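Hi L., both proteins are below.
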Amino acid sequence: MKPIQYILPALLLFALISCSNDSSDSNSSYELRSEAPVATKQARRSAYLAYEHAITIGLPHDDLETGYGNIISFCNDDVANKCTILHSSLYTGDYSSAQIEIRVLPTGVDTLLELVSDQGDISNKSTDIDDLQDAIVNGKKRLEMLIQYRSRLSHLEGQRGNNIESLIKIAKELSQVQSDIEYSQGGNAALLQRTQMDIVQISLDTHAYTSFWAPISQSFGGFGETLSEQISEAITAIAFLLPWALMGMVLLLLVRFIWQKSRAQ
């Protein structure tokens, strides 16, 4: 009997140790399972980020059109990164400048910014990030609800039989739902495109490279226009004040006449 008394506690202790190990293994596996959704969620959240880059370049006046053309040509040739020019404008004159807005895949942003930087001196560079997760997720949920509603309407349409009034109402509602679905699909596609492609805002500025004599020459160039404008304003002021001056003179003469007459009495 004594050996059995020693064996039973040993077996019980072994069972407790095994249970403890199983519990720790299950806890560690639970931690791994709980961390996995967090990593997945963060990966999904990062996929909902929209990037917009902005860069301002200062360059000499004579190099503006060349730099502008280099950027436009580079984007047109960058087919691999789907480079697309959304807006471009070139202003020539005393203070020349250019604006270019480009949409490109993230893999092509660094190369594009490097080319832009080579055109002159960087005066400003920034990156803005917009989180579109809520908008995209809500848009998908709304689209799913609309599709389900359309399916129910289609099923209901098949059960109406020859009830013309009900069929007309269902057809009208189906048309509206289909329009809402197409609008929602377009909005979701636009949001996804913003997350899949970056926007690059490029500004080319020549103000910093204005020569010493440029403001003086601009003043002489605008001398005649400024002089004519001031003469025009002076003539307008005279035309405005002349009637009041005449009325003041008449009133003054009348007061003087009354005063002289009162003194004579």
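That was the first. Here is the second:
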Amino acid sequence: MNQNWSFNIPGSIIFGNNSLSQLSQIAKDFSPKSICIVTDRGVSEAGILNKTLHILKDLEVTLTTFDEIEPEPDIKSIDQCAKLARENKVDLFVGVGGGSPIDVAKGASIVAKYDGSIFGYLGVDNVPGSTIPKVLIPTTAGTGSEVTPFAIFKDKERQLKTAIQSKHVLGDTVIIDPLLTHSCPPKVTAVCGMDALTHAIESYTSINSSPMSAQCSIQATNLIGKYILQAYKNGDNVEARQSMSLGSFYAGIGIANAGSGAVGALSYPVEGMYKVIHGIGNALLLPYIIAYNSIANYKKFEDICTALGLESKTGKDATVNVINFINDLNETFQLPRTLGDIGARKGDIKTLADDAITRQRILVNNMRKLDHNDIMKIYESAF
């Protein structure tokens, strides 16, 4: 565990049922004249956009909505959103939705202030300074993007996942209202939940895990392990939804400070090549990465086994229990369990590995080192 560490979180975090009602007062604190609400059609159809607009209606500001966002947003949508924001002289962004609208709000807040294109800010620490302020409001319990310094986009032309990593994309204020997740259908609940569970496990096992981040990661593992099936089976279960939102939040704090690892690095090429969404890519690869990683520190997986509420085991037996738990969830949720299930071909393994090995931004966090050959073997095991 890393004993020399720092800990980064958004400017302020508001959690609880009906906390969305505080948005008007929160917005006032930024003294805005023009607000851009960044969301997607699903959020709009669920009635959450209208609710957000209603809360803000008494503010004497210009309200603009950008909702042209697909799941796994095309990187070009960020420049489109930023153009709209500049035209309306936006001085506050409100991102409402899953990871896609929140990431677009993050990206647009950069481009709208510094001009150019989002392509100029990709990579690590390429944002020159603070961005236009942003309030981030998740409507799913999954990506944790509302509390991370990352923004992930899809470059459809090159069939690649790209990212920004910078402290400047952290939200200024985050509102986590678990009631907003009640509209998520079971499949979305499952995929987002598996995404969050992956973040929890990866950040706990990261070589950059600190005493603070580890507490968040293991608590996330416990909450998600206990409540994911309950939220999936009954979307109106208030306790389950609140616990999943809290678990997703903790997992997001975990990866924000300890980083993710090989699951993310190997999933991004799969997502880009086979048009698979991030949560599904993570859920598919997580058991295979655990099988590879566990030898580096069995104690970590003993802790995870306990946090998931499984029968206490040691060493390899604990790892097997964790893998079986994840496989059982994937089967229950009817998620793909092999690369073959998503139409991958063994002939693509080298191309996937060539891409994955370049993801050193996150591979360096992994608890066990990987070279190109190791990555090839993991992909092969996933068929």
